[in-house]
Structure to design on (181 residues):
């Protein structure tokens, strides 16, 4: 079985900045931030890390309560931002997913810094969500490599590669292809 893992933003689609706009709207609606301070890099990072940096720049205490408030507001604002921004599925992606998805020897998954529900909303907006059976998401990790380790560890455990008494080693399986823009 060949496992193909895809990133979302810049690989499958361009949201036209909808995710960033939704995060900024969440800061405004939940924490009263009316003007963005400084610049936070978004590309290639987990939503959790972006949120941490936004909190730091705007003097918002980094706590699980604040993260949950921010995340709930972000997910509430994201559909409207996706509708208002000029996003698109990148060229050739639909055909690639249909072709790969039609093969019995291929499994399609996600490996993304997006939080799970954000990924679902973004991919659903563009009609791509149904192509993916599993994934690793940026809900809990600051570093993308930790998202990958968690995904591979979960797959090792699911496949019975590890017993309850042995700790799975985070490694990249040989039959995995990563797609990142």
């Amino acid at each position: 079985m060949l496992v193909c893992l895809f990133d979302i933003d810049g690989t499958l689609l361009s949201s036209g900045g909808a995710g960033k706009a939704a995060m900024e709207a969440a800061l405004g609606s939940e924490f009263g931030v009316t003007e963005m301070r400084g610049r936070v890099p978004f590309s290639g990072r987990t939503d959790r890390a972006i949120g941490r940096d936004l909190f730091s720049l705007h003097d918002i205490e980094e706590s699980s309560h604040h993260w949950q408030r921010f995340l709930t507001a972000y997910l509430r604002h994201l559909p409207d931002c996706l509708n208002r921004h000029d996003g698109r599925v990148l060229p050739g992606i639909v055909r690639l997913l249909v072709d790969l998805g039609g093969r019995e020897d291929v499994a399609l998954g996600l490996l993304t810094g997006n939080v799970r529900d954000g990924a679902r909303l973004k991919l659903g907006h563009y009609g791509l969500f149904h192509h993916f059976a599993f994934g690793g998401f940026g809900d809990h990790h600051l570093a993308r490599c930790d998202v990958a380790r968690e995904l591979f560890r979960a797959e090792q455990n699911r496949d019975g590669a590890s017993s309850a008494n042995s700790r799975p080693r985070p490694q990249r399986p040989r039959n995995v292809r990563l797609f990142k823009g």
Remarks:
- The first strand starts at residue 2 and ends at 6.
